[in-house]
Amino acid sequence: MTRWRQNVQAHLGSGAIPILALTGGNLFFNIVANASFKISADSRTWREFLLWQVVGNLAGLVTVLTLTSLLRYLPLRVAFPLTTGLTVIGVQVVAARWLFHEPITPAQWMGTLFIVAGILLIGGR
C-alpha cells in the first residue's frame, strides 16, 4: 500500500486539487449521462425522449472534456482506468440503486469490490 501512496503522490504533486476536481466532475457527469439515457429509454413521448437524449449527450461531452483535462495531470494508463472504474461504480450505486431502485446482487457487489481493487492496482504501477 505504501508504494501505491507514493505513486499517487508522485502523480498528484501540486496538482491534487485539479485532479480531484476533474475526477469528481467526470464521475458526476458520467452518472448524469447514464441516468439521462435510462430516463430517455423509459420516456413515453418523443419530446421527453429527445430532451433526455440531449441532456445525456451534453453530460457525455463534459465527461470527455474532463477526461481530456485530466490527461494534463495523469498518464492515460492511470486516468482512463480510474475514470472508467469509478463510472461503473458510480452508475451502479448512485444511478441504478439510489435513483432507479434497481436491485444489486451480492455477486454484483463483489464485482464492484474487484473494480476498486483493479483501480488501486493500476494506479499503483
What report would you give on this structure?
This protein is an all-alpha fold and 125 residues long. It is built from 5 helices and no strands. The protein has helices at 2-12, 16-41, 46-70, 76-99, 106-123.
Break the fold down into its secondary structure elements and pairings.
Elements: H1 2-12, H2 16-41, H3 46-70, H4 76-99, H5 106-123
Q: Report the helical percentage.
A: over 70%
Q: List the domain count as a whole number.
A: 1
Total count of strands: 0
In angstroms, what is the radius of gyration? 16 Å
What is the percentage of strand-forming residues? under 5%
Strand count, sense and barrel status of the largest sheet are:
none
Report the span from N to C terminus: 11 Å
Total of helices: 5
Shape: flat
The oligomerization state is single chain
| Poorly predicted regions | none
Structural class: mainly alpha
How would you state the average pLDDT, rounded? 88
Which sequence of SSEs, written as H and E, runs from N to C? Answer: HHHHH
Short description:
The chain has helices at residues 2-12, 16-41, 46-70, 76-99, 106-123. By secondary structure, it is mainly α.
Short descriptors:
83% helix, 125 residues, mainly alpha, flat
